[in-house]
Every structure is written in C-alpha cells, then in structure tokens.
What does this fold into?
Amino acid sequence: MKYAWIEENRDEFEVTMMCQLLGVSRSGLYAAARRAPSARQRANDRVLAEIRQRQRRHRGRYGRRRMRRELSGALAWPINEKRVGRLMREHDLQSRQRRRFRVVTTDSKHAHPVAPNLLQRDFTASAPNQKWLADLTYVPTAEGWLYVALVLDLFSRKLVGWAMSATMPQELTSAALRMALGWRDPLPGRLIHHSDRGSQYAAGDYRSVLEARGITVSMSRKGDCWDNAPMESVNGTVKVEAVNGGWFRTRGEAERALVEYIGYYNTQRIHSSLDYVTPSEFERRWRADNNGMGGATAVT
It folds into this structure.
C-alpha cells in the first residue's frame, strides 16, 4: 500500500521524501515497480500512448499544457499537467524549443506619414473583422531568408492573409493584404488595421487600399514590439513550429511547408487564448451564436 501511494503521488511530491516519511527504501520501491504492472503503470502506459499519438499528429509541437487539455477529452479520468509533463520529459516527447533569429524587418526611416497608435495595446475584439494585425517575419533556408507577410484577425487569432518572397518589397505586404480582403469582407468603418511603422505599411499604395475599403490605420510606437504583441507571438510560433527543428534547402520548400502549417494553425492547433479551441472552431461558434454573421461583419 505504501508503494502504491508513492506511485500515485510522485507527480506532487519528491520520491525520496515520500520514502523517508513512510519508512521504505527507494530500492524496495523500484523492486516493487519491476513486478506486475500496477494500476498506476497501466494508466501511465495508456496516457503515454495517447501522448505519442498526438505528438505525431501535431509533429511534436505541443507542450504539456495543450497536451493535457487534449488528453482530458480522451481519457476516462482526470489528469494533471505535472503528470503529463513528467511523462513527456521521461520519454523525450517535449515540444520544440523556440530558436531566436535576429533579422531586422522594420524600416522606419522613411518619409511616409505615420498613423497614430489607435489600438493602444487593447488586444480584445468581440467579433471577427474588428481588428487586424499585420507584420513581416522570416524563415531561414539554404538559399537565404524567406520573408513572410502575415495578417491576423485578433478576434480568433486566425491568419487571414499571407504572402512570401525572397525580399521585402512593398508588394509582399500588399499581396498579404489583398488575400485577407479577398477572403474577408469587412464593413467600412468597422475595422482597424494595426502594424508597425515600417515603410511597407506606411507607403501610399498600401494606405490607399486600406482607405478605399474604409479601414482605419493604426501603427505601433517606434521600436515598441509590445504594441503589436499578439502578432509578435504568432510570428515566433510560425517560425518555430513550421521549421520544426529542421532546415529548408530552398525557399520553395519553405513556402510549401509554411502554407501547410498555416492551414494546420487555423484548423487544428488549439489556442490557450481561445479556451483551447482552434481559430476556425472559435469563429464557427461565434457564427452559431450570432445567427451566421450577427449583423456585424461578413466572415468566411
């Protein structure tokens, strides 16, 4: 019974301390563990199988928090985050660690007019197409950097526009914006577009497209990444999880992987900020609660 109790509580307390308190030896504990599998071990085996299955599906991208959330719907018993984390560490099933790439993508030394920061770090939205965030990021390849322009709907954290190029011309950001406007149909006067003050976003052609659609322009303060924090977070997630510990030989190979990942990100990857559902599912629930569109804005 003492050994069983230790096994049941090893996620909460240090094993040596429990052995001392109960007056048993660690060697005795390990000898007991080598005998017939306990209920605890059988349960761990089941949990481990579920973790392996999900890490294959998500290509090693999930950490213990998202994994525990997914497991809670698959198991017939509650499981805590510590237990999931311990099993993932012991069996080398941890998520990929974030790698840092240092490339400057913001050129704020230009003569274009700069918009005020209307968002003011208010990263909340009550419906789709109220607040879009835009930014440039990059992925390394053997041929050089692949630059990626992204547009994010803040309400659902869904990527609604993207474009990729070997350089950072204004056309790159414009292509991502055109995709977003082709996919979505924001009502005039209802949408704020927020970005940094880089030349690609401050240029007249880009601003003209926004003005023609009745979209209000907002820009971060100079050199303040926190003014666009959700977009910065998504950039980091895309770079790490799309690269996924590997290396791309060509920009074309990277582009194909990124397009595949964006589809995964929107439809399969659960988000803690969305109460652990996917962006697509979050919007589907919103549409169901608002009779399709709720009279506020068009969503596809």
Summary: The longest strand covers residues 131-141. The two ends are 58 Å apart (CA to CA).
